[in-house]
Every structure is written in structure tokens, then in C-alpha cells.
Specification:
Oligomer: single chain
Structural class: alpha/beta
Catalytic activity: 7-aminomethyl-7-carbaguanosine(34) in tRNA + S-adenosyl-L-methionine = epoxyqueuosine(34) in tRNA + adenine + L-methionine + 2 H(+)
Number of domains: 2
Order of helices and strands: EEHEEEEEEEEHHEHEEHEHEEHHE
Subunit structure: Monomer.
Pathway: tRNA modification; tRNA-queuosine biosynthesis
Radius of gyration: 20 Å
Protein name: S-adenosylmethionine:tRNA ribosyltransferase-isomerase
CATH class of the largest domain: Alpha Beta
Keywords: Cytoplasm, Isomerase, Queuosine biosynthesis, S-adenosyl-L-methionine, Transferase
Distance between the termini: 19 Å
CATH superfamily of the largest domain: QueA-like
Helix content: 10-25%
Largest sheet: 9 strands, mixed
Length: about 350
């Protein structure tokens, strides 16, 4: 399958650079198992799901991971903390006029917190902070909002680029699980009142989610690595739902990758699992866990668009995207959403 198979024209004005006033006020495009689509509001989810169905949500929290600083010579640098190894050492992306070498010292904030470059791991720098990393991020960090917003993080992002159910002890993502941004307390209460269950998994989203695919043949693409945890409680709720004939609805591509990775790690059968995943889901993949997917509209030629195409089909999704563009749906992280049913095989 070629990268160009997942291209489409997207007018710039359809990119949602700011959230709507209300989280759940987004539109929802439902693509059913036959590939037919229908326009809804996100709050219609209560009617589109059945009592006993299970929503699988990612409870990670986004770090204020972007730091601006300077070199010892005074040159500007930007450090994006991708993954913390311990409270002082992290794997980071560093933007600078030229690539810092091992031993280089960088300084963050007015009190000049020292960051020492120790070396490289693949495309990331291994750095040591002179003070606890989370404290430095809290003082000087900015939320790493997506590059396609074409703006700096603002006060509104502090609340709205986090889910309402994030777990503060799981502060480790550099991007939000954006399909979950549509849920507010009122909608969650209505879903619960109908008997729709929810369970939580964790996948700490890395900056690699925004990296373009650079191979013409998508099968040659190597996914970035992300840490995830699928606990026993989630596995049991999912298994019980399957046993009684209910559907498992993953909220977002990150929750999807987490549960499918857990199944893949156990030979295709879902079981509790914690580890790093590089799972790459594209058309031809056979889903082990997920029946339906709630997701946002994704970038052309992205691995996220390939994942949703695997659940339905490339043809179904590209037709639905054409409809979404024609109907002026809002795209990407702060945009509208889709509910996609697994296509009949």
C-alpha cells in the first residue's frame, strides 16, 4: 500500500486551532459496518451505544514538556521532554541552530537550571537536569500543543488540552489523547446512567505521533515507541462485555494501540500487559479487541489515518473524509469526531 493512497485535500480553514466553548458540542460522523455515514452531534453517542458496551479511555496526562532556554554561548534552544528515565534524566528532542554534542550545557529559566547533554539514543538526546524534571516543567514548561495549531500555547490550552478524567499520577504525555477531549462530566454521567461502562488504560503519547511517514511503501515505516499499561481491571471488563455480546469501543487511536498491543503480546488473546509498543496498524490488520472506535479527523498520510482505515476500509474512510470536508467538519486535535464501526469481513 502506498503513502499516496492516504492523501486528501484539506482546506486550511478547517483545521481547528482552538476548542469549542463546550467540550461535547462537537459534531460526530458515524461510519457504520457497511461504510455508510451519517451526521450527528457528539452528544448523540448516548443513543449510538448500547447498555453494557464498554468505553476504553486513555487516562494519561499531558506534561508541560516544552522548555525554552539557551546555550552557554547565549544561543536559543528548545527542549521537548519526550520521556523521563528518572527524576533527573530524560530523553528529549532539542531544537538549536546546530546539534549539541555530548557534554554541552544548556540553561533553562531565569535561575538557569542546568541541562547537560549526555549523548544520543536513536533520534533523541539523553540529558541530565540539575533539578527534578517535573519541578522544572511546572515552573518553566509550556504545553506542547500540536505544530499545526501554528501558535504558542495559551491559557485556554491548560484546561482544554487535557481530558476531564486524566490521572495526575500519570503525567507523562507530550500530546493529548484527543478523541477524549470531547467528553465532559455531563456526557459521562448520561452514558453511565444508560449502563454504558468505562475502563481505563494508559498510553503515554510521544511526539512521534506528529512525525510524517517518510516511506513511499507504508509497510516499510517504523513506528515510534510509546509506553503503555493495560491493567487487569480493564481486561476483565472487556472480556465480560465480549462474553455477553456487547461492543468494545476504544476512545482514540492511543487506547486502540494499547489494547491491541496487549493482545499481540499474548499471541492474540487480551491479557494484562505493561511495556513499550511500536505497533503499526494499517489496512490488513485483524483487530483482536476493538469493535468500534471514537476518533478525531487525522492528517493526510498519517499513521493515525491508516489505523482508522484498518478498522473500516481505506475506501470507506476516504469517502467519509470527502464528506467531512464538504460539510465543513473541523479537523485535528480540537476538531470534530467520528464513530467508526468495524467493517464486516
Amino acid at each position: 500500500m502506498q503513502l499516496s493512497d492516504f492523501n486528501f485535500d484539506l482546506p486550511d480553514e478547517l483545521i481547528a486551532r482552538y476548542p469549542l466553548e463546550q467540550r461535547s458540542a462537537s459534531r460526530l460522523l458515524h461510519v457504520n459496518a457497511e461504510g455508510q455515514y451519517q451526521d450527528h452531534q457528539f452528544t448523540d453517542l448516548v443513543d449510538l451505544l448500547e447498555a453494557g458496551d464498554v468505553l476504553v479511555l486513555n487516562d494519561t496526562k499531558v506534561m508541560k514538556a516544552r522548555l525554552k532556554g539557551k546555550r552557554a554561548t547565549g544561543g536559543a534552544v528548545e527542549v521537548l521532554v519526550e520521556r523521563m528515565q528518572d527524576q533527573f534524566i530524560a530523553h528529549c528532542h532539542i531544537k538549536a541552530s546546530n546539534s549539541p554534542k555530548a557534554g554541552a550545557e544548556l540553561f533553562i529559566g531565569p535561575d538557569e537550571v542546568k541541562v547537560t547533554v549526555q549523548g544520543r539514543h536513536e533520534n533523541l538526546f539523553i540529558v541530565e537536569f540539575s533539578q527534578p524534571i517535573l519541578e522544572v516543567l511546572d515552573r518553566y514548561g509550556a504545553l506542547p500543543i500540536p505544530p499545526y495549531f501554528n501558535r504558542e500555547a495559551e491559557a485556554i490550552d491548560t484546561e482544554r488540552y487535557q481530558t476531564v478524567f486524566n490521572d495526575p499520577t500519570k503525567l507523562a504525555s507530550v500530546a493529548a489523547p484527543t478523541a477524549s477531549l470531547h467528553f465532559d462530566a455531563e456526557l459521562l454521567a448520561k452514558l453511565e446512567a444508560k449502563g454504558i461502562q468505562k475502563t481505563f488504560v494508559t498510553l503515554h503519547v510521544g511526539a512521534g505521533t506528529f512525525l510524517p511517514v517518510r516511506t513511499t511503501d507504508i509497510e516499510n515505516h517504523i513506528m515510534h515507541s510509546e509506553w503503555c499499561d493495560v491493567p487487569t481491571a480493564a481486561v476483565e471488563m472487556i472480556q465480560q462485555a465480549k462474553a455477553r455480546g456487547n461492543k468494545v469501543i476504544s476512545v482514540g487511536t492511543t487506547a486502540t494501540r494499547a489494547v491491541e498491543s496487549a493482545a499481540q503480546a499474548h499471541g492474540g488473546t487480551l491479557a494484562a500487559w505493561t511495556g513499550d509498543t511500536q505497533i503499526f496498524i494499517y489496512p490488513g490488520y485483524k483487530f483482536k479487541v476493538v469493535d468500534r472506535l471514537i476518533t478525531n479527523f487525522h492528517l493526510p498520510e498519517s499513521t493515525l489515518l491508516m489505523l482508522v482505515s484498518a478498522l473500516s476500509s481505506r475506501e470507506n474512510i476516504m469517502r467519509a473524509y470527502q464528506h467531512a470536508v464538504a460539510q465543513r467538519y473541523r479537523f485535528f486535535s480540537y476538531g470534530d469526531a467520528m464513530l467508526i464501526d468495524q467493517a464486516h469481513s
